[in-house]
Amino acid sequence: MTQTAPRTETIAPAPDHVVSVDQVGIEERVARLGSRSIKKSSKVQALKLILSQIDLTTLEGQDTPGKVRQLCHKAMSLHDTLPDIPHVAAVCVYPMMVAEAKKALGDSGIHIASVATAFPSGMATTQAKLDEIKLAVAEGADEIDMVISRGKFLQGEYQAVFDEIVLCKEACGDAHLKVILETGELGTLDRVRHASDLAMHAGADFIKTSTGKIQPAATLPVTLVMLQAIRDYYYETGRMVGMKPAGGISKAKLAIQYLVTLRETLGEAWMTPEWFRFGASSLANDVLMQLQKQQTGVYQSGDYFSKD
Question: Out of 55, 142, 208, 286, which one is annotated catalytic?
């Protein structure tokens, strides 16, 4: 991922300086975009693009080095018989598993993303969060997925949330920072927009919907609001920021709707793994099933593809 140095502010955007969201308008636009149809050749292209944008993820308490190695093998070799299949963008693991992922992925070109900052709750001191980021980066993480302090945000402590993101960005060094808003806990689209603006002004390289541990996780209306925030921030600053919907996106049909929304909101420049990711654990299998269907005319059983 190449981009200019983040443009950070010292003061967090206040709610009265943030664009108010027209919820009805957002829902109507999502409904229109969701009705778009894609023809066969374009569908195959979209499916392959989706594969290349996936952060293949395992974030469970039962994760083991063996499970991480298996996930990395899948990331590098999604399917041996389908032609021209790209590898995924990244493997996303806990900090304690980064070294194992780095060893398994070698020089494959697949990034290593690591969650940090007391994922998924964010309930830790700022120093503990910074130490966790530094550990993950030292072990080989290329990208850090941090969670904001939603309790502080909901209490109106916007400057504290902003300052913490700035410090986390500094702790990342050369690693890229994805800021998770946990939109399911923010409650309103106005708050989603405010948190998006706050994170970008604090230096986020990506903004991300969810941890995948809270419902609702990613939704198209929330994602559209975040994409519009990225568009407006780009017009204001000239700096591109990436987007990562995560949690609940397990079907190729739904992922294509996200791509359509991305294309119609931000344009072709964002239609790459450099600027758009899916946080997912099972999406890759459904995409592979759809590609197999395009090639052979029949669906394979879900058991035909590895679960991990």
Answer: 208
How many structural domains does the chain have? 1
Q: Please state the pTM of the whole predicted model.
A: 0.93
Examine residue 188 and state whether it is found in any structural domain, yes or no: yes
Residue among 129, 197, 244, 286 flagged as catalytic:
244
DSSP label at 276?
B
Check: CB of residue 82 under 8 Å from CB of residue 295.
Answer: yes
Token couple for 90 = 């990244």
Q: pLDDT band at residue 293, thresholds of 50, 70 and 90?
A: confident
Structural domain includes residue 9: no
CA distance 265 to 273: 17
Q: Is 145 a catalytic residue?
A: yes
Q: Are 146 and 128 in contact (CB under 8 A)?
A: no
**286 an active-site residue?**
no
Q: State yes or no: is 22 an active-site residue.
A: no
Q: Which of 142, 145, 205, 286 is catalytic?
A: 145
Q: Compute the Cα dihedral for 263, 266, 272, 275 and give only its sign.
A: negative
Q: Side-chain half-sphere of 37: how many Cα atoms within 13 Å?
A: 2
297 band by pLDDT with thresholds 50, 70 and 90 = low
Bridge pairing between strands 278-280 and 90-93: unpaired
Q: Give me the domain span that covers residue 141.
A: 15-296
